[in-house]
Amino acid sequence: MRYLRYAFLGTLGVVLISVSLANRAPVELKLMPDDLADLLGFNLSASLPLFLVVLGGVVAGLVIGFVWEWLREHKHRREAGAKTREVRQLEREVNKLKKKQNEGRDEVLALLDEAG
């Protein structure tokens, strides 16, 4: 299974390198369309190789998706934390009640009651 993973990663690397080498031509990446930039008086642009634009878009999409999913699952993590705190509190209460019940009894019998 480990070799299959290495073979997949190697193949993916070869494909990404070949796509990158085939798309080295520079492209102009602009923040806004020309008309809007002229109206606002602010234009930001950069000349980058095409493969950087494509791979950067893929990476940006992955990061946005991970953050979106993390935010979406927040309520589930909060509920799990509340349940964990409730379980701990109930366990402490049960232990306190067992100690109170076993007061004045023989220690061996109290241990047997606690275990069972």
From TrEMBL:
It comes from the Bacteria. Residues 73-107 form a coiled coil. Keywords: Cell membrane, Coiled coil, Isomerase, Membrane, Transmembrane, Transmembrane helix. The chain crosses the membrane at residues 48-68. One of its GO terms (cellular component) is plasma membrane. GO terms for molecular function: isomerase activity. Residues 42-95 form the Lipopolysaccharide assembly protein A domain. This is Phosphoribosylanthranilate isomerase.
